Amino acid sequence: xxxxxxxxxxxxxxxxxxxxxxxxxxxxxxxxxxxxxxxxxxxxxxxxxxxxxxxxxxxxxxxxxxxxxxxxxxxxxxxxxxxxxxxxxxxxxxxxxxxxxxxxxxxxxxxxxxxxxxxxxxxxxxxxxxxxxxxxxxxxxxxxxxxxxxxxxxxxxxxxxxxxxxxxxxxxxxxxxxxxxxxxxxxxxxxxxxxxxxxxxxxxxxxxxxxxxxxxxxxxxxxxxxxxxxxxxxxxxxxxxxxxxxxxxxxxxxxxxxxxxxxxxxxxxxxxxxxxxxxxxxxxxxxxxxxxxxxxxxxx
Length: 300
Description:
- By secondary structure, the chain is mainly α.
- Strand 1 (about 95) and strand 2 form a beta hairpin.
- The protein has 15 helices and two strands.
- About 70% of the residues lie in helices and about 0% in strands.
- The protein has one domain: Farnesyl Diphosphate Synthase, CATH 1.10.600.10.
- A two-stranded antiparallel sheet has the order 1-2.
- The relative contact order is 0.12.
- Its cofactor is Mg(2+).
- It catalyses: isopentenyl diphosphate + (2E)-geranyl diphosphate = (2E,6E)-farnesyl diphosphate + diphosphate.
């Protein structure tokens, strides 16, 4: 397997799925749809929908049932980025190599676009009920379970809860316990959400889904710690956004608490643990394993 080629193919697939579900730019709400689509089409790794799709395939999923959830997952993620970039939060001017939504469309439009995108994500996920492959009772039960995961992992007990604690303590020294809480919710929760939904929609057992959650949790924290490392060692050209913002904003990160060497070692340990958990599950997982390794060593 040529990992880079496979990643390009799977990222392209995720991109096509996402485009299929974007709102139409017409009518009186045309400007809002344009702001939403500007943010959604800004590029990015499409990591979460790729994780969802690969987990779905790993457990034998072959229908298109996963597609509305892939799009919804990226919508939730993009909504969080739009709001993170606002002047009231991180006040960033660049995201993925181009101007952020509030810089292009104005602050009020960006707030509303983020709100609209979050709501539209759930509207998109509900579209799974209308698919021909969702006619049976067992499939409808899987969709219901997936929606429950989506709601919990993206809300106050997941991503938004982690963001709230992060914002409330912005610029303050954090304990390791609080930092872990922020990472587990602000970052890990969405990756857990993506992979758990993929597993549930494909018919994975409760025990298998719990193991996927554990693996995804480790992936999410490793991904965030690597982000901390890149904020110190990366460049704006590589990352497509400003670097050094953590230090500028006096932000507590894994690097500031543990140092660069320990942070790097933690990324490797968590990645190895995640791969170990995946190996205990059935199905083809060569690509997923390579994807985890690439995240551990990424430069952007």
